[in-house]
């Protein structure tokens, strides 16, 4: 399973505001004290109604490598979502520190972020970054084979607000993901993701 390539589908599954995706779009590489950010918006981007989607890469790649090798700009465009998409730095190995421990600090580094929902997509080792984010202003979470180990933070985060949503695709992380979803009574487990499943609050694929 090439899980990074699920990002486009899963953003659609979170039912973000639709927009017609046609060139030219806007792509900016922004330097920050904590490393580069890749920022992409669709051609018909409307900041007044847009959401903020943050992609956190996994191990063995950097921000720029993930941007290129996972074809993230093309995926974001195919989503047809009215959103600002941001790819931030994350550990590339066990020994690397977390680049962005604070979601609020990351959002403050983004020029003119939209005021809509905040959704994080974490691939694999990206779980180390988003563990500290679920206590902040996060509205939705997509885990792409990223449910490594116990995840009490996510259980508590979901319990704190009924509008928060979780979408979890697991393969290598299946044993841990099964334990996580067993503790979430609202969770449904499906073999594939389609539009009908988007109506559910917690989905395990």
Question: How are the SSEs placed, and which strands pair?
Answer:
Blueprint: H1 7-13, E1 26-30, E2 37-41, E3 51-56, H2 63-69, H3 72-79, E4 83-88, H4 103-109, E5 118-123, H5 127-130, E6 140-144, H6 152-160, E7 165-169, H7 174-182, E8 188-189, E9 202-204
Parallel strand pairs: 3-4, 3-5, 5-6, 6-7, 7-9, 8-9
Antiparallel strand pairs: 1-2, 2-4
Question: What labels would you give this structure?
Answer:
205 residues; alpha/beta; nine-stranded mixed beta sheet; 7 helices; 9 strands; 21% strand; disordered N terminus
Structural category is: alpha/beta
Q: How many helix segments?
A: 7
Shape: globular
* Radius of gyration, CA atoms, in whole angstroms: 16 Å
Estimate the helix proportion, in percent: 10-25%
Q: How far is the N terminus from the C terminus?
A: 12 Å
Structure description:
The chain is an alpha/beta fold and 205 residues long. The chain contains seven helices and nine strands; from the N terminus they run αβββααβαβαβαβαββ. Strands 1-2-4-3-5-6-7-9-8 form a nine-stranded mixed β-sheet. Helix 5 links the parallel strand 5 and strand 6 (140-144). Helix 1 (7-13) runs parallel beside helix 3 (72-79). Residues 1-6 and 12-23 have low confidence and may be disordered.
